[in-house]
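Most newcomers find our protein records easier to grasp once they have seen one. To make this concrete, we reproduce a full record directly below:

===
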Amino acid sequence: MINDNISRPSQGNSQPIGKHPRDVPSELEIIMQDFERRNLELEKKIEQMK
């Protein structure tokens, strides 16, 4: 069975991996930035409680 939900580059306009612009963050990068921001906020709150 083939899963049609998996995105594959089309044969016509596929670009080599690593050629896409770096100014467009991936979903993982966005999640990591959000996590780091929240983690920093929590660290500040913990310091204030000491």
Notes: The chain has a mean pLDDT of 79. Residues 24-50 form one domain. The two ends are 57 Å apart (CA to CA). Residues 1 and 37 are 41 Å apart (CA to CA).
